[in-house]
Amino acid sequence: MIDLHSHTNESDGTCSPAQLIAEAVRAGVKVLGITDHDTFAGYDRALPAAAEAGVELICGIELSTELYGHSVHLLGYFLAAEGLAEFRHWILDLQASRRERNVRLAARLRELGFAITVEEAEARGRGMTGRPHFAQIMVEKGYVANLRQAFDEYLDESAKGYVYRREPQLAEGVEKIRHAGGIASLAHPVRVNGDVASLMPELCRAGLNAIEAYHSDHGPMETDLYLGLARRYGLKVTGGSDFHGAVKPGVLLGTGCAGNLRIPPGLMERLRARE
Fold first, then answer.
1. What tens digit of pLDDT does each residue of 6-15 get?
2. How far apart are CA 206 and CA 190, in angstroms?
3. pTM attached to this predicted model
4. What is the domain-level CATH number for residue 51?
5. Beta strand spans in 70-190 (E)
């Protein structure tokens, strides 16, 4: 089984890197991509456990980028060793913008009547504190019943507690991934604001060379649409559950939502064929 989209607690997941590897073994996932937001820390820390467990670990990352004022996520895979040091330096700037957003998010939540500080969140999230860590505090302090309510009512992009984070333009994110020798894949395209099909010529001109056709949010019609776009524009195809652990309890590693994720075994061979 293949799953190329997962998160650890080094970004906004709830499983430690070792726990994620254990979950992969339990679920029967043989090839696992760790795609934490703006960091490789989860991948780096999972390597020993993956080697011991016999899980093939794929180095990945998820970037939040901006396109026409809306957030669009990019997945980067197979970044070359010779380009990785420069790329790791670039993502330090993204981490700094995340920290600045967290300060404003804590202030916004206090405006809404929640006694929450950025220091409390950082005690949970360490260097990659994000909205799930604020949600955990809200649950612990009794402000909301569960993590889903925290996001639905306060932390999601359309919710009243959301604050904007400075993000690179999509073209810059694609360029950085491609410059480092990687594959730049459009993450969960069903979430993209606007018609993905009409945006595709522009995205391809920017250097996008893959699309995440298989995802827990995609039904059969969406998957067929994105596979068709991949064929039309000569794109690689990626896929994964977008597993986050307890923050998204309905999304299971390897199989998605109620078994809707089925990644064909030949996908990895086509991704490795870089031509």
1. 999 888 888 9
2. 20
3. 0.85
4. 3.20.20.140
5. 70-77, 183-186
